[in-house]
Amino acid sequence: MLMRTDPFRELDRLAQQLMGPGTWSRPSAMPMDAYREGDEYVVAFDLPGVGADAIDIDVERNMLTVKAERRPVTKTDDVQMELSERPLGVCSRQITLADTLDTEHIRADYDAGVLTLRIPIAERAKPRKISIGAGSGRKEISG
Q: Is residue 133 within 8 Å of 84, Cβ to Cβ?
């Protein structure tokens, strides 16, 4: 069923205003999509308004961590803010990667506010054919 309106949208907005922006010790959520495309997994994070220099990507064993910080736009003295709904602060996401992924060759691209990570499937995890060798005939067992 497709929902055209979200009855909890205002409640979420109010909760976010009361809790304040995300911090490094308490980051807010980061929306993402994950899918398989050929021989790699693709993970895309929405990070509108975040500069590439404010994104931190780490992999430790099989734990992928992405942190980003949306900083306020620098204002001059003659600017008066009328409305500010875009969230500022730190957002973060951690993903446990399967052992079948090659974490040594992750590629990251950032374009139009979307961070895209491409994680190749490890060679050992790809399906392969096993050939059957022909025997050299009968063998006797002597004892």
A: no
Residues contacting residue 81 through CB under 8 Å, at least 6 positions apart: 75
User: Rounded CA gap, 121 and 105, in Å?
Assistant: 10
CA 71 to chain centre: 20
pLDDT in tens, 19-45: 555 554 555 678 899 999 999 999 999
What confidence tens digit (pLDDT) does each residue in 72-129 have?
Answer: 777 778 888 787 777 778 888 899 998 889 999 999 999 999 999 999 998 877 777 8
Closest CA to 32 of 21, 20, 19, 47: 47
Lookup result for tokens 């600017």: 79
If DSSP codes are grouped into helix, strand and coil, which group holds residue 124? helix
- Which token pair is 97? 């990667």
Q: Please give the angle made by the CA atoms of 90, 3 and 35, to the nearest 5 degrees.
A: 55
Q: Where are the beta strands (DSSP E) in the chain?
A: 32-37, 40-46, 55-60, 63-70, 89-96, 107-111, 114-120
pLDDT digit string, tens, across residues 9-19: 566 656 655 55
Which residues make beta-bridge pairs with 108?
117
